Amino acid sequence: MVERWDVGATIVLVPTEAVLLLAVGLPMASASQRRAALPFAIEDRIADPLDAVHIVLGQMIGPQTYLVAVVRHETIAGWVAILAEAGLGHARIVPDALVLPVAPVGSWNIMGDGERIVVRTDAGTGFAVPAARFLALWAAGGSLPCAVFGAPISLDLPMATVAETTVDLARHGTPAVDLRAGSYAAPARALPRVFRRAAAVVALGLLAHTAILATDAHVLGNQAAARRTETEALLRATLPGTPLSADLDRLLPGGGGGRLLPLLARVAVALDPVGGLAWTKLGWSAADNSLTLGVEAGDIGGLQRAQAALTAAGLAPVSGAVTAGQGSAVGDLIVRAGVT
């Protein structure tokens, strides 16, 4: 088994007998919320303590329902060690029941090798049992019709049909669950030398363009701020006591940036006293005169202070997506030309 970049990492099948596959309802909106709620959603459905098992959130298999795999830490750690010794340290680890497609409603898909039977249910879950115990489980499960994949199975299943389909995991695309997740995630694969060289060239090019754009933005921001200061001073001298509002934007030189430069200047002046901020991106939409800033701060509080500073400056910022990590928080702030 060789890992190739055009086909992805090797997939290694492990016995489903050692993995509990569950269908779990998780109505949370974000993946992070679902992962946080997952242990509490399955706690009463497993026999082992939560700290003794590795829990993996898999693909969606129904409305707000996800496939979840549970395996003991000692088991997954043993598999990882075996694969590392075999030179397959980057391989995906997939329960072998997931090699079968999800069964049609009211039926099972099964596969056997004489000693064991592997089952994929219509709920998207799966299990494996010794062949001698299968008939009892099949009867307890409602004696559903079974589509048999692979070699014929010598069992008394009067409602069974033989599916003329060969089992090929590659045809099913991304596995529904990869046990190499969380603390057992596969290490990053090193790029081949030719890819590393190409990536270095691209990175250098992007770095150069980013530096040029950052310099241009800084210069343009300074120019816009200077123009605004001059205009404000002129207005205050000419019309003392007149409050400055969004009407001031129409008096500023538009140039090629239209209303971008005045708004950018106002944002830069408002954020300057906050400190500890870095801009990660800058976008402008002429359709609704909106400026999108990617702002990085030491924590979420820094992003909140930035939003408060823009509000205090008479702007109307709207907070977008926020990503918080150790020692930093990155979020989008959308500011439209004009105030509310």
Structural class assignment: alpha+beta
The CATH architecture of the largest domain can be given as 2-Layer Sandwich
Q: How many runs of DSSP E, i.e. beta strands?
A: 14
CATH class of the largest domain: Alpha Beta
Number of spatially distinct domains:
3
What fold name stands as the CATH topology of the largest domain?
Gyrase A, domain 2
Biggest beta sheet attributes = 5 strands, mixed
The Cα radius of gyration reads 30 Å
Strand order of the largest sheet: 8-7-6-9-10
Shape: elongated
H-E string:
EEHEEHEEEEHEEHHEEHEE
Distance between the termini: 62 Å
Average pLDDT number: 78
Helix content: 25-40%
Q: Going by CATH, what is the homologous superfamily of the largest domain?
A: General secretion pathway protein M, EpsM
List its salient traits.
single chain, about 350 residues, alpha+beta, Nucleotidyltransferase, domain 5, Gyrase A, domain 2, 3 domains, five-stranded mixed β-sheet, four-stranded antiparallel β-sheet, 6 helices, 14 strands, about 30% helix, about 25% strand, elongated, disordered N terminus
